[in-house]
Amino acid sequence: MAILEDKLIEQGMAEQVTTFESGNEMAAMAAAQINYHIMGYFPITPSTEVAQILDQMKARGEHDIKLIPADGEHGSAGICYGAAATGARVFNATSANGLLYMIEQLPVQAGTRFPMVMNLVTRAVSGPLDIRGDHSDLYYALNTGWVILTARTPQAVYDMNIMALKIAEHAKVRLPVIVAYDGFFTSHQKRRVQYFKDRRFVQQFVGECPTDYHFIRDPKKPVTIGAHMNGEDLMNNHFQQSEAMYHAGEIFKEVACEYAKLSGREYPVLDLYKMEDAEVALFLLNSAAESAKDVVDQLRAQGVKAGVISPNIIRPFPAKEIREALKNVKALLVGERADSYGAHGANLTHEVKSALQDDKDNQTIVLCRIFGLGGKDFYASDAHEFFKMAIDAMEKGYAEKPFDYYGHIPGDPEKILKPAITPQHGDVFKTGLIEVKMDEETQKLKVKIPPLRALTSKPKRIASGHGACPGCGIFGGLELFFKGIEGDIVTLFQTGCAYVTTTAYPYSSHKQTMIHNLFQNGAATLSGTVEAFMELKRRGEIQVSDDATFVMITGDGGMDIGMGSAIGTALRGHKLIMLEYDNEGYMNTGSQMSYSTPIGHMTSTSGVGKVQKGKTFHHKDTVQIMAATNIPYVFTGSEAFPQDLVKKGAKAQWYAQNVGPVYGKLLITCPLNWKSEDRYGTKILEAAVNSCFFPLYEVEQGVTTITYNPEEKNKRVSVTEWFKYMGKTKHLLKEENKPILEEFEAEVEKRWQRLKAMHENPLL
Fold first, then answer.
1. What is a single Pfam family found in this protein's UniProt entry (predicted)?
2. pTM of the complete model beyond 0.90
3. What's residue 664's pLDDT?
4. What are phi and psi for residue 203, nearest 5 degrees?
5. What is d(CA 356, CA 365) in angstroms, rounded to the nearest whole number?
6. Closest C-alpha to 245, from 85, 107, 337
7. For position 5, what pLDDT does the model report?
């Protein structure tokens, strides 16, 4: 319901609407109402929803923001910096390793003083991988030169996103701003919120976009951005940046006061809960502070003078306000969702202690407890324990243990997990039924495989018990490929559905050695493993068989963000296989658009609406890109054509063991996000191949061979035959979307004809 208009007029506030929304929804709402020029983004849980929601709003025509999907977070930071340097208003959202991947770019933007706003939806930094919320990413941002606001609730996320832009663009600041809020606690939990009914009030509050900076926007006024500096100039530059950061603290107060008049909501530098006469207190960031306030009320009823401090801004750090708040506090426990390893306390603990050093009369005992890592919940009972520790220190006059972790549990050796199956290796995975020989005349491999039923006795490489969705094509495709590989394998799984569903600690579905690394570095990591393996073997430090095969498994967009690593690995010539399962999206984070998503296809970041009809550009041909690196063997495969795939698996192993790197691409069904029925998996794959969208071919020693030609077998079908099975493409069968369908058909035909020409001419 809307706030009563007469009350608003009386208080001088703008009309607002009350609803229940999450932090991510409110970040997107604020961005849409501001109507930024540019958002460069890359999906990473739990910040992904921000871009998804904005895409849905864009499809409905609710804002004009140009949403640019990057190839990775580093690229998204570059997009944002370039746009900001051009004078555009720029927005972004990220989390965890996404922040770390772009972190090299953040000081560049701050040091050249271009404003923007980025939402940091806080999450544990891996490894090991954990997608839930703590502050380990936030603490990496402390030294980037960005102003950092902290939002405890979805309401604060909305309000601070509006305030952040005004602070960033202020003439005394001119710095980028981070709005940090807790992943899954604040980002996904719905709470009562209010937002401005008319976005004109928001736009009037933030004001016009500044035009008096030195932007890249007028050819008549050329500028040089980021010129190289010597030490004297760099000293001056950083001094000015430092001054701007401290100005931001004062500007925050001004903007917060102005915003309170418009909204009725106040955001002081410190949120102080019953701190007027507090003797013991907790210092907590974001959502945990809200949980502790109820405990303060309970302790107050028992006669304990307790309070909670939670900052709304941590860069610049509010040292003066903290000294004032702690004048009479005898013991303070600083709870932190991240550690500064080896420092005897995490970052904010030391900053609180440093602030107190300037008050010679202050005798506050400061304790630090690391808690809530990886999204571990913080309950009222935990706040009670924190207060107990602070009270104990107050009563004793010192802290018995100034620094410790809270919530860790010692392991029990008696409960150590035992393998559910006997480890399988070597001869178990050898059938002796696959024959691979080089044809000296054609310089191509000849492969003989038995009937598929003869290979069914070969054990699967991945055990049952994984958590893949019903109908998922990943493991069917991988296992069929592995049927062509004899002997031991070592696999590296990049982050993605295949990894997440098979390795829920402390369990694993992998029967042989598996290592994980992030999307952007899987190929490089496995290349290091291969070379170390070979060198250790050469020196006689390990005794293993010669036929181990190293396979990197990538998918879910891994050949976007990981393209550079894969190309580098290919060019170096390591003896390994890079195998991509292509489900045409970033399925592990919720079906976002990938560069492998075909034009017009619907994903959660290429929605379908009155002004948008799915993805706007054509899919990337990773097979041809990798073939251009001149590696010995490149191929495509599909579970729907099993003999073809098994043969290619055998070839891939031979080349990886004897010549050099191999790249393969399997088309994989994803019923959940393709909006298709499980039972149609094989039909969908057959239609994709028979429509020539996903042709089956190989590039062996630079020579292209089509291994299945649907035209020669009179099985060529229209792409509409493929589309009809999937909900993500049914809109393309409507008359109003015929131009997109025709453009896609033309692209498929062009690539098919080019492939046929390459097949017919070995020099192409």
1. TPP_enzyme_C
2. yes
3. 98
4. -70, -35
5. 10
6. 107
7. 41
Spatial distance between the Cα atoms of 444 and 616, rounded to a whole number of angstroms: 40
Q: Express each pLDDT in 125-162 by its tens digit.
A: 998 999 999 999 999 999 999 999 999 999 999 999 99
**Alpha carbon distance 341, 684 (integer Å):** 51
pLDDT over 60 (residue 9): no
Please name the residues in contact with 143: beta carbons below 8 A apart, sequence gap of 6 or more. Answer: none
Q: Give burial (CB, 10 Å; 0-12/13-18/19+) of 164.
A: buried
Residue 226, by phi and psi: left (phi above 0), alpha (psi -120 to 50) or beta?
left
- Contact assessment for residue 28 and residue 53, using Cβ atoms and an 8 Å cutoff: yes
Residue reference for tokens 């939402």: 119
Residue 287 corresponds to which amino acid?
A: S
Do 493 and 474 contact (CB within 8 A), yes or no?
no
CB atoms within 10 A of CB 61: 11
Asked if 438 and 445 touch (Cβ cutoff 8 Å), the reply is yes
Beta strands in 189-258 (DSSP E): 191-196
Say what the pLDDT of residue 419 is. 84
Q: How far apart are CA 88 and CA 360, in angstroms?
A: 47
pLDDT of 342 higher than 80: yes
Q: For 437-480, what is each residue's pLDDT tens digit? A: 999 888 899 999 999 999 999 999 999 889 999 999 999 999 99
Region for residue 21 given its phi and psi (left: phi exceeds 0; alpha: psi -120 to 50; beta: otherwise): beta
Whose CA is closest to 598, among 579, 612, 618? 618
Paired tokens of 294: 């109820």
Residue 299 near residue 306 (C-beta atoms within 8 A)? yes
